[in-house]
Amino acid sequence: MRKTMAVGLAALIAIYFLGGMSARHQIFPWPQLSALKKQVVGEKVGAPSRYTFDDKERLIGDESKTLVTCPPQTDRTAVLLILGQSNAANYGGQRHRSNYGARVVNAFDKRCYIAASPLLGSTNTRGEYWTLLANNLIASGQNDNVILAPLAYSGSEVARWAAGGDFNPVLVDTVKQLQDSGYRVTNVLWVQGEADLVMGTTAEAYQERFMSMVNTLRQHGVEAPVYISIASKCLEPSNGGFKEHIPDNAVVRAQMALSKSGHGIREGVNSDALLDGDDRYDDCHFGSTGGEKASQAWLNLLRSDGRLESSR
């Protein structure tokens, strides 16, 4: 009896380890058993979500959004085309919503929604600070209405935005949708660079690819100034970054050079210098205080440039 039990126990242990090795390395019989289970039981259906994403993980639907009539553009309307990677997308540590109802909208796919985090058009479903910026633009008296048109992808390098990159056609389509909705972009806000620093993109290559994206905008009727942020800081391997940040790097040198190159390109917010460790909730992405600081810096910049334009 004991011998039989010992043999049975040994067999169970052998089966356990065989199953573990088979699953870990995807060798016989795990793949075959998994396929058989799917045929008999079917695929496991995930829990329903209010969010919908496209094949590049961009947020394209949110059941909580409030659809409104797109407000007409006047000379006191800001139409902000927001481009870049995660710190331009829905990775913020604080959510915001319009304090002014349909005077601040998220324009997407030729429709307008009362602006509220997360914004349609960018990746992830956390917070963002663009809605806060829009609220502040109205509160300051700079604008009566603000149209937010975000298009930002986490981890995207500048090459993907240049001609031939996979985001370039999406950029063209976004511009066309805005134009079809009766909107003329007033400001392009670019927040990107962290991915290129990690990839080792040279200053020359960064400038060339960024200018290719700007040329795409110009070729499709966007004459607005393009604000290039000084952004290269995203620490820790968990974020795809380095342990420490070196402020003087190839990406920053490229961004600084581009901001002084003309072509309607202006220097945006320097988040590398503006934010300290407490402003980034994971050593990379903007937390609540980081979003507030960035929003205020953008407000100061846009108000200053707005006064300059009106005085000409």
Automatic annotation (TrEMBL):
GO molecular function: hydrolase activity, acting on ester bonds
SUPFAM superfamilies, A to Z: SGNH hydrolase
Keywords: Hydrolase
Protein name from the UniProt record: Sialate O-acetylesterase domain-containing protein
Domain Sialate O-acetylesterase: from-to ranges: 78-221
Keyword Hydrolase: yes
Keyword Protease assigned: no
A Pfam family per the record: SASA
PANTHER family recorded: 9-O-ACETYL-N-ACETYLNEURAMINIC ACID DEACETYLASE-RELATED, ESTERASE, PUTATIVE (DUF303)-RELATED
InterPro entries with a match to the protein in the record: Carb_Esterase_6, SASA, SGNH_hydro_sf
Biological source species: Rhizobium leguminosarum
